[in-house]
Amino acid sequence: MVFSGKKLSELELYIGTCTDLKNKIAPGVAEEQRDYIILGNNYARTLLVVDYPGSVRGNWLTKLYRFSGNMNISTHIVPIASDKMIRHLNQSIEEYEARLDQPLSPVRRKETEKKKTSAEHMLDILLAHNHKTIFLVHTYIHLQAMSLEELERLTERLQSIIWQTGLSVAPARDNMMHAFKSVLPICDITLPHYTHQNMHAAAVSSMLPFDESELFMQSGIIMGQNMHTDNVVLVDMNDKKMFPSRNMLILGTTGMGKSFFMQKHLLRQWVLEREDTRFFLIDPEREFARVVKQIGGQVIRLSNNTEHVINPFHILHDITDDDMRGSVLFLKMQRLKIFFKLIYPNMSVLESALLERALFAVYKQYDITEHTRFAGRNAKDFPTLSDLYHHIGEGYERLRDFREILRTYTEGTNAKLFNGATNVNLHNPLICFDIRDLQQDGDSQPVVMFHVLSFLWEEITRDTTTPKKLYVDEAHLLMRSEKSALFLLDVYKRIRKYEGEAIVASQQPIDFLGAAAGKAILNNSIGMLLLGLQDNDIRDLKEHDVLPLSEEEEAIIGRRKQGEGIYVAGNHRVYMRVDVTPEELRVIDPQQYAERFGSHA
Ligand SMILES: Nc1ncnc2c1ncn2[C@@H]1O[C@H](COP(=O)(O)OP(=O)(O)OP(=O)(O)O)[C@@H](O)[C@H]1O
Ligand SMILES: [Mg+2]
């Protein structure tokens, strides 16, 4: 605590008048022994820091601050006017010199020399830095336990940490009650002669308990709990100075908690982000539906049996990205070609060219050309897959195979998926596309996923001002095809421009490491959560050298503990446990909530 004389007297005055308060918070018994005190049911001991190491590096007290046990550290930092200090140091150095002229034991001589050197060093700093302020630092460490035995064990454990830091401590023997006062928040330094240490500003700053392994911004969203320090990991992805982009990639073996993290994060963003923020989710496993419904969002289920249709030919608006050359129709054409390539992966270059011709022709049937304005255009005024199917029935002999495949999407089993005018609207600020029913049909789920993403991308690019969050779970479905992977990369790279953020999860790193687009997605992820991974996945990560991991980090991920992993935000990394509040757990996983808290949601 830093304090001035004025503040001290104010505080003293306040405490002095609060006799009632003091009586209320005082323990029933306060009994002083030689090297401990009994306070109510507790046993306590105060240690004095009597010496500090000669030189220190930043965060040198981290180990002490991370000590797990009932311990309080009280550090008093008192600024001293530099001229007063210079006079004091001058006098001390003269005294040490006089002492060294006397006959001394070798130990005393060494100690005195050390003190003299230290005083000279301090004087040098003061004179060299234009008489900057010097601080007197006093540190007291207070331990508390339920029994004397426990207190002894705690002291012993602490001693070994203290030894590693280079500090020298001593119990305030016969002075315990007095020393205890220095630990209380009353700005009282009770044993200054034992504890005082001169320090310049840099040395004082190294004492402050800011840990480099901490990721704690002034505001933001809690990502989890730092497993090294037990503090929360608080990150503000909207801080543009710190994070040039916001996208987050979550990797982890099945069951490690990727979808769980996403749901919890969604709940927090839903509450904490700007009120006009729009949320779009692609949910291949039907894990988000319950959460989304509970907070008032809309779930759109796309399957062979539901009536929801997003027409691949539909164009939502007329806005094109400055970075992209070509008309709205031209850009749509590129995405349509990916869509049809996913339906018919063996499409040749010639077939692709013919298809493009056919696509322009069916748009023409609806009077749609490169000059058409689309805003406000009726959903029915666009061609459908049936139109394409009929159109290529004649004069497109080389598209015969493609036409057969297309038939399953117009008349066959998948006829309800894409064929018809778009009948979904995106008015709800939170929309989840549930595509789980398509899981049985391994071929169509990735197509639908791409299709939804493409539709959402049109919606996202409508304006550059409304904040948007795009959640894509099971993204490996998109990584299967190079074309859809490249599209995801494109979305990933450009979403920031539209005030958006993508949060993407996948099971295996190799989905991302195996291809150039995947690697680029990894490199464009300013946030990353690496949950437990299989050994071969960790090997893949190492081999591809995209994300260097320390041995400790590898061990953490290799342990495969649900909800535990490495969280990366920009240049910061922390070992993190995904946290959840009871209320969040109730919404996300009612069964687990009931098991933990004993009642059903
Ligand atoms: N941090 C956590 N706290 C409590 N429960 C969790 C946590 N993480 C995951 N779970 C629970 O573990 C189970 C599996 O988690 P989840 O479905 O999120 O895994 P996943 O990584 O998405 O797996 P998959 O790759 O198969 O989709 C769920 O029932 C979930 O409720
Ligand atoms: Mg999952």
From TrEMBL:
Membrane spanning residue stretches: none
Gene3D superfamilies per UniProt: 1.10.8.730, P-loop containing nucleotide triphosphate hydrolases (3.40.50.300)
Highest taxon listed in the record's lineage: Bacteria
SUPFAM superfamilies reported in the protein's UniProt record: P-loop containing nucleoside triphosphate hydrolases (SSF52540)
One Pfam family, short name: P-loop_TraG
Endpoints of the signal sequence: none
Domain TraG P-loop intervals: 231-557
Name of the featured protein: DUF87 domain-containing protein
Organism: Ectobacillus antri
